[in-house]
């Protein structure tokens, strides 16, 4: 089993002013139907971020998605991830200047918060490397750091590694005098080689949906038949994504989360049904309300018009490479 990195560190090195790093991070779609919390795919919609060390304070210039609503101080998700990443690498910065150009829509099931976390840790990695403090973080470290920080390693791993991913968590057990306890969740991931014929289309509504709200709609226990159903379909999803795209329709049916979330996003549920009736492997993207189609053919104009009629924009997107860091 691959080793998860250990999250330790301090803030021994204060980085000099004038170090800059640039990051480009893709959006992602989690679950891919049945693979609740364990499958994801990177999508070619990108946030770009430039982070520079400055003498003091937090300076944030943001354009694009979320620019009107995100905080411009230490509460900013990317700032928090950069700070945490520097701490993990044994350093700190007196001040940070961020330039964010955001194209990933927020709260639509396209992994914006995971991408923000990944971009922050990737920026910290670049700053540490540019300053000569340490080697850049490995992909495994980025998955662990961003997964732990943001809570959705299925999104985070896709944004780190690109392509499609399988993620899993492991809680190593530690014996202490009071008994055996789980010490810490380790987040691990492996990439899949996506069949070259598969393309992605996302249908994005104007309406937002909070992931924490729609997670709260899920039951704590499910019928065994539904669990078995999803086991077989998520195993099939790995086959369909890599070697058998003709199985995508069967491989993207889910009984663990979409049925429970459907009442909170009726248009998404309606669009998934309409697309599947037309032969497309359609599913809610992550926690919704966007809808993802994986197919070998482009969607038709009729589908585009149908989606538009119920408030969704049609975005054909590439299956993306993972995060890029330059300094
Ligand atoms: N680039 C960003 N910069 C700062 N904050 C961000 C950024 N992207 C997302 N966020 C924060 O994350 C929130 C969205 O998180 P949420 O988990 O609800 O949606 P999501 O990540 O877009 O969807 P999902 O996790 O279902 O794919 C935003 O409201 C904002 O507070
Ligand atoms: N697997 C998570 C993804 C959230 O982005 C969910 O469906 O809640």
Automatic annotation (TrEMBL):
Family to which the UniProt record says this protein belongs: Belongs to the GHMP kinase family. Homoserine kinase subfamily.
Q: Give the source species.
A: Gordonia pseudamarae
- Where the record annotates domain GHMP kinase N-terminal, the positions are 77-163
Positions binding ATP in this chain are 105-115
Q: Please report the name of this protein according to its UniProt entry.
A: Homoserine kinase
One Pfam family matching this protein: GHMP_kinases_N
Q: Which compartment or compartments is the protein found in? A: Cytoplasm
Q: List the InterPro entries hit by this protein, alphabetically.
A: GHMP_kinase_C_dom, GHMP_kinase_C_sf, GHMP_kinase_N_dom, GHMP_knse_ATP-bd_CS, Homoserine_kinase, Ribosomal_Su5_D2-typ_SF, Ribsml_uS5_D2-typ_fold_subgr
Class of this enzyme: transferase
GHMP kinase C-terminal domain location is: 255-297
Q: Tell me the keywords, alphabetical order.
A: Amino-acid biosynthesis, ATP-binding, Cytoplasm, Kinase, Nucleotide-binding, Threonine biosynthesis, Transferase
Q: What does this protein do?
A: Catalyzes the ATP-dependent phosphorylation of L-homoserine to L-homoserine phosphate.
Just give the chief location class: cytoplasm
């Amino acid at each position: 089993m691959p080793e998860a990195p250990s999250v330790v560190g301090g803030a021994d090195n204060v980085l000099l002013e004038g170090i800059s790093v640039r990051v480009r991070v893709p959006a992602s779609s989690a679950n891919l139907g049945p693979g609740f919390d364990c499958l994801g795919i990177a999508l070619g919609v990108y946030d770009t971020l430039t982070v520079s060390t400055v003498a003091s304070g937090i300076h944030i210039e943001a354009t694009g998605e979320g620019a009107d609503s995100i905080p411009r101080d230490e509460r900013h998700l990317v700032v928090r991830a950069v700070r945490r990443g520097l701490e993990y690498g044994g350093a700190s910065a007196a001040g940070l200047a961020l330039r964010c150009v955001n194209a990933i829509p927020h709260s639509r099931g396209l992994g914006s918060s995971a991408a923000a976390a990944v971009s922050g840790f990737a920026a910290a990695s670049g700053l540490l490397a540019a300053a000569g403090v340490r080697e850049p973080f490995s992909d495994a470290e980025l998955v662990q750091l961003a997964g732990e920080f943001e809570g959705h390693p299925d999104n985070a791993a896709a944004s780190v590694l690109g392509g499609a991913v399988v993620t899993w968590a492991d809680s190593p057990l530690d014996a202490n005098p009071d008994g055996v306890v789980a010490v810490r969740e380790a987040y691990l991931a492996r990439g899949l080689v996506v069949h070259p014929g598969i393309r992605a289309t996302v249908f994005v509504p104007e309406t937002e949906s909070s992931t924490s709200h729609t997670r709260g709609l899920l039951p704590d226990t499910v019928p065994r038949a539904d669990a078995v159903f999803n086991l077989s379909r998520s195993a099939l999803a790995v086959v369909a994504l890599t070697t058998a795209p003709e199985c995508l329709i069967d491989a993207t049916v889910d009984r663990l989360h979409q049925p429970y979330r459907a009442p909170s996003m009726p248009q998404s549920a309606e669009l998934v049904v309409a697309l599947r009736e037309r032969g497309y492997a359609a599913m809610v993207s992550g926690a919704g309300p966007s809808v993802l189609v994986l197919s070998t053919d482009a969607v038709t104009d009729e589908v585009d018009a149908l989606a538009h009629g119920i408030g969704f924009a049609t975005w054909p997107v590439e299956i993306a490479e993972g995060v890029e860091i330059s300094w």
